[in-house]
């Protein structure tokens, strides 16, 4: 599966953004989908994940209550709604796909668990 992110940009603290990740192929509904981010000068970190059916989610503590992951299997797209953004959210955001139905979301927090990645989209939050 190939992934293409969009929706990044430069915003002020407190603003919202919605990222989208469009996937190619006809097996999108068989993938656990995840969002990761890489702040400047830091390693890639987990943000959120959603199971293949869309019924289970898991979030990093740093974004819980502010970010929401969702997916539309009919459109082969996963989203990340980001509210109450702050400068610490500044990063390149990546969409990732992990093959397998029913994979427990708590096991999908490491970048190594994912086999497919998008090119990333920059999110910059200024104070």
Defining key terms:
four-stranded antiparallel sheet, seven-stranded mixed sheet, globular, 127 residues, mainly beta
Describe this structure in words.
This protein has 127 residues and is mainly beta. The chain is 0% helix and 48% strand. The radius of gyration is 13 Å and the shape is globular. The termini are far apart. The model has no long low-confidence stretch (mean pLDDT 96).
Describe, in short, the structure shown.
Helices cover 0% and strands 48% of the residues.
Layout of helices and strands:
Elements: E1 3-6, E2 9-12, E3 17-23, E4 31-38, E5 45-50, E6 57-59, E7 67-72, E8 77-82, E9 91-99, E10 116-117, E11 121-126
Query: Strand-and-helix sequence, N→C?
Result: EEEEEEEEEEE
Q: Biggest β-sheet: count, sense, barrel?
A: 7 strands, mixed
* Tally of helical segments: 0
The end-to-end distance, rounded to whole angstroms, is 37 Å
Secondary structure category: mainly beta
Mean pLDDT: 96
Beta content: over 45%
Indicate the radius of gyration in whole angstroms. 13 Å
Low-confidence residue ranges: none
């Amino acid at each position: 599966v190939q992934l293409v992110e969009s929706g990044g940009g430069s915003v002020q603290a407190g603003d919202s953004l919605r990222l989208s990740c469009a996937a190619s192929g006809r097996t999108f509904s068989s993938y656990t989908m995840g969002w990761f981010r890489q702040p400047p000068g830091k390693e890639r970190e987990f943000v959120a994940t959603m199971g293949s059916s869309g019924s289970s989610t898991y979030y990093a503590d740093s974004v819980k209550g502010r970010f929401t992951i969702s997916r539309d299997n009919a459109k082969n797209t996963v989203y990340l709604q980001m509210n109450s953004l702050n400068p610490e959210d500044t990063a390149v955001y990546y969409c990732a796909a992990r093959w397998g139905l029913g994979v427990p979301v708590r096991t999908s927090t490491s970048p190594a668990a994912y086999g497919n990645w998008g090119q990333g989209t920059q999110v910059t939050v200024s104070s």
